Amino acid sequence: MRATRLLALLSVLIGTFALAPAAPAGARVIRVAEFLADCPFSHRLPDDPIVFPGLPGASHMHSFFGSRVTNAHTTLTDLQNGATNCNPAVDKSSYWVPTLYRDGAPVEPAIVTFYYLGEGVRDDVIARTQPLPQGLRIVAGNAKATGTGDPSSIARWSCLHAGQVNPSKDFVTCPSGTMLESYLDFPQCWNGRDLDSADHKSHMAYPVGGQCPSTHPVPVPKLRQVIRYPVSGDPSHFRLASGGGYTMHGDFFNAWPAAEMERRVRDCIQPIVKCGADGRPV
């Protein structure tokens, strides 16, 4: 009798598995090398400790994210010892962009996320990605770009939840109920020596043909700056402190603890695993 019941149960189980849907042929597993930091607006100052160090008021107006202590005199030690509003709180880095204005009034972002990615290069290059060194300073984009045809203008503007609006180097018209958003990718190839350079760009390079150029042989995580502003409508009402939308640029002063950056590169970037703000797989 017991054997009969076992055979009946086995028959039910076999039938269940037979009815379960099979994975579609050729289905692809999504592989993403990523960790991130959510760092809301902190403060606003006409300072820039990378371009105009030690010269308060020398810059156009900037909106700062992450570190709450950034000013014209900021050093790595200041960031490491200062407060931050980032999630995760271990990220003591400072990030800043030119302030956005609508009809002359400053508008601060509603959502600010910094993604650290392994993409744009071959998988074998991703596997060799090294941690961003402490104290690294980078400027991406060009505050002095002359128009949308200027190749040094690399940021893109689009609309959150309005994919029908084509991205542009300049401000776009976002439908009511959506938000204006800006995307900017920082270079991910380092020369392996310098934490900064005279133009704040030459120590870094963008990949070519899926790999880092010989002049900048060290692959590091790509920083992607995604900023969403609670504005929409006619872009003629908008301007940046640096000028038109095509002058959008970003500054990054790395103050991640070395061990935390190393762990995230090892566990998320190199094996091509999607991680959250805590640096754990999601």
Task: Tell me roughly what share of residues is in helical segments.
Answer: 10-25%
Tally of contiguous helical segments: 4
Mean pLDDT across residues? 92
Q: Would you identify the regions where 5 or more consecutive residues have pLDDT less than 50?
A: 1-29
Shape: globular
The helix/strand class is alpha+beta
Order of SSEs: HEEEHEEEEHEEEEEEEEEH
What is the rounded distance between the termini?
A: 48 Å
Characterize the biggest β-sheet.
5 strands, antiparallel
Strand order of the largest sheet: 1-7-14-10-9
SS elements, strand count: 16
Task: Work out the strand percent.
Answer: 25-35%
Radius of gyration: 23 Å
Please provide a written account of the structure.
The protein has 282 residues and is of the alpha+beta class. The strands form four sheets. A five-stranded antiparallel beta sheet has the order 1-7-14-10-9. Strands 2-3-4-16-8 form a five-stranded antiparallel beta sheet, with no helix packed on it. Strands 6-5-15 form a three-stranded antiparallel beta sheet, with no helix packed on it.
Name the descriptors:
282 residues, alpha+beta, five-stranded antiparallel β-sheet, 4 helices, globular, disordered N terminus
Give a nutshell description of this structure.
The chain is an alpha+beta fold. The protein contains four helices and 16 strands.
Helix and strand topology:
Layout: H1 2-19, E1 34-38, E2 41-45, E3 62-66, H2 76-81, E4 94-98, E5 100-102, E6 105-107, E7 111-117, H3 123-126, E8 137-141, E9 156-160, E10 179-185, E11 189-190, E12 204-205, E13 218-219, E14 222-229, E15 238-240, E16 249-253, H4 258-269
Antiparallel strand pairs: 1-7, 2-3, 3-4, 4-16, 5-6, 5-15, 7-14, 8-16, 9-10, 10-14, 11-12, 11-13
